[in-house]
Amino acid sequence: xxxxxxxxxxxxxxxxxxxxxxxxxxxxxxxxxxxxxxxxxxxxxxxxxxxxxxxxxxxxxxxxxxxxxxxxxxxxxxxxxxxxxxxxxxxxxxxxxxxxxxxxxxxxxxxxxxxxxxxxxxxxxxxxxxxxxxxxxxxxxxxxxxxxxxxxxxxxxxxxxxxxxxxxxxxxxxxxxxxxxxxxxxxxxxxxxxxxxxxxxxxxxxxxxxxxxxxxxxxxxxxxxxxxxxxxxxxxxxxxxxxxxxxxxxxxxxxxxxxxxxxxxxxxxxxxxxxxxxxxxxxxxxxxxxxxxxxxxxxxxxxxxxxxxxxxxxxxxxxxxxxxxxxxxxxxxxxxxxxxxxxxxxxxxxxxxxxxxxxxxxxxxxxxxxxxxxxxxxxxxxxxxxxxxxxxxxxxxxxxxxxxxxxxxxxxxxx
Amino acid sequence: xxxxxxxxxxxxxxxxxxxxxxxxxxxxxxxxxxxxxxxxxxxxxxxxxxxxxxxxxxxxxxxxxxxxxxxxxxxxxxxxxxxxxxxxxxxxxxxxxxxxxxxxxxxxxxxxxxxxxxxxxxxxxxxxxxxxxxxxxxxxxxxxxxxxxxxxxxxxxxxxxxxxxxxxxxxxxxxxxxxxxxxxxxxxxxxxxxxxxxxxxxxxxxxxxxxxxxxxxxxxxxxxxxxxxxxxxxxxxxxxxxxxxxxxxxxxxxxxxxxxxxxxxxxxxxxxxxxxxxxxxxxxxxxxxxxxxxxxxxxxxxxxxxxxxxxxxxxxxxxxxxxxxxxxxxxxxxxxxxxxxxxxxxxxxxxxxxxxxxxxxxxxxxxxxxxxxxxxxxxxxxxxxxxxxxxxxxxxxxxxxxxxxxxxxxxxxxx
Lengths: 415, 415
Known about the structure:
The structure is a homodimer.
Chain A: H1 3-18, H2 23-39, H3 41-57, H4 62-68, H5 72-87, E1 95-100, E2 106-113, E3 116-121, H6 126-137, E4 141-145, H7 151-165, E5 175-177, H8 183-190, E6 198-202, H9 205-214, E7 227-231, H10 237-249, E8 258-264, H11 265-281, E9 285-288, H12 290-295, E10 300-301, H13 304-307, E11 315-321, H14 324-334, E12 339-343, H15 347-356, E13 361-366, E14 383-385, E15 393-395, E16 401-412
Parallel strand pairs in A: 3-4, 3-6, 4-5, 7-8, 7-12, 8-11, 9-10, 9-11, 12-13
Antiparallel strand pairs in A: 1-2, 2-16, 14-15
Helix pairs in contact in A: 2-5, 2-7, 3-7, 5-6, 14-15
């Protein structure tokens, strides 16, 4: 028997035990996990040290090592996030629809857990704790398949979670960690339809593309963000500069950062040079069209790949366009359906842009950096969906649920 | 250029033209299609005749020929269904959530079309009209890939729809029929991620399994129904018999018909023989466990395959169980997560059954035959989802929509 099948079966069995557990029982278990992580902090940091050492030996960059690294503060932050999670309302059991039929049938559409959630993710060990606790809060079992680069950290975290769960009403088997991080186990997970209700990939474009291409288990695609800002003719120059510079430079490594800029030609003629200078002063590398390259000698000429790039770094592609329609067309061709913004004082152009651009979140006069479960007020986030089915945009607790029709009769049949 | 790519591109362009079309414009177009179908009835029946003749020559059974056949009445029924559709509320544009942030950001989660829907289906030409009109009502473009056995009928129906659309505000390209019904075009459709937002298979288990296995486009799985009725110890004998006999025999070819029966041993000892006799009198073939075969010599011994079978015919599998827990376990092992019923006067057993059985619709003292978009009051149905993401159970107009966050600011950035 394979590890994947064994753990799949155990998680499925646990998911049935989770059905009907009270919000109190689930929150109690979450609090128990929070304290246990603090209690086990020393051993967790020690195991994390092994991953860091292995990573250094493999020559990982400091930014990758930073993603793997746990600290006392980071563990405390995990515990605080779990406590905040216990304060969120429990979505399970909510009545979504009540239908009373003339024949006396009473139909209640009710929110229920998905069952077993598979998470496949890269470096960050905090995803282990996030995914486990969000799953438990929503009554789901979870199978975690992290990266080999965080093997010891993930194992220590899950051991701590198991230790906590063993003191609660919730089944220990509800959280499963796949220890064999080979490609073969990933493939097996993609086809574990018998036990998995959904698979959520978290990581780079390659991982997500592979999961979408190969998985027969339904996938919640979380996504790459090639986010654009379009500066329309009537945009306020100060607002445009603030949104673009902040959106590009405040945290370039996140998916809602700005990756591409479209500028109306008339606005560009008046304020373009100043904006380009602001970006250059912040060390942003610029890939521009011919117009940009003419006024900014240090700009590189953008190629087809640049227009589709999610740089996740201090780099941006810039194109001058003749109107809103051209901006919309460009975005619908190169965007990743994540977050797109227009800066304009023209309400008509704003409305056309927001309606025509095909993305999870569209902004008028605000930064795309707000696409985030916490910023939207959901209090939690399992990822940002760039697909259109089930959930689109920041996914909070509700995205981790399904529904079920409960039908109550007195012997009704179809005539 | 391939037919699939060309039509995919045209449908995608049309889907953008559909954005923001008023409910009036959409309903007007639907009415126009309804009249055009009536007007074109003669040519449609003539073309349908070609399919019927080809089908007879290929030796199709009368039930398959009946599925292909159109009549004056069936075309009138299609037109009436379209008129009813115009009377349903338009889901598009509905505000699903309004979030006001302290920083002044206003976030509106709004219902929007999915974009382009792919439908891949078997024989019945009425699916062509259903899928096209439900898609237009929800602002979606649609790519129809029917079966070669209904080639002439589908072509005549889509020609009629195009003729109607050309007189309206909606783009003719919003409805595309794939004329090459080879396996190659089906495969191409499975990977048309560039243009397709969702793929909905309608047909037998083989078709659905193939689509789920091969498609990289997100799939809305509509489903097989191996529906069970569990007769608990305290079930009223008359109610149990009525629900079982009606659920099995009233229309055996549909997915919500009863395929398997589980009976509490004590109930069986009292009323079992009578129930079996009723089924036999209705010509139902019985595949039973050892207990059933002992009391009913004409029963065949059920094998592993029978417990998982969706007979779609006058046949049923029957097993005697010792309690509700055994019934639930059996259903969760062999069921297809469609519709499951318990007949009992014990509220505790009913609650346990409804909660523990993993299915789209669960029934207490009523027939599984009610799992249907029209019976649930949705006024339309594109299929019954047996998956847990996006939509579960009967899918009405809302299942054909997505959501989008519209965010309105005054220059806000992340600090």
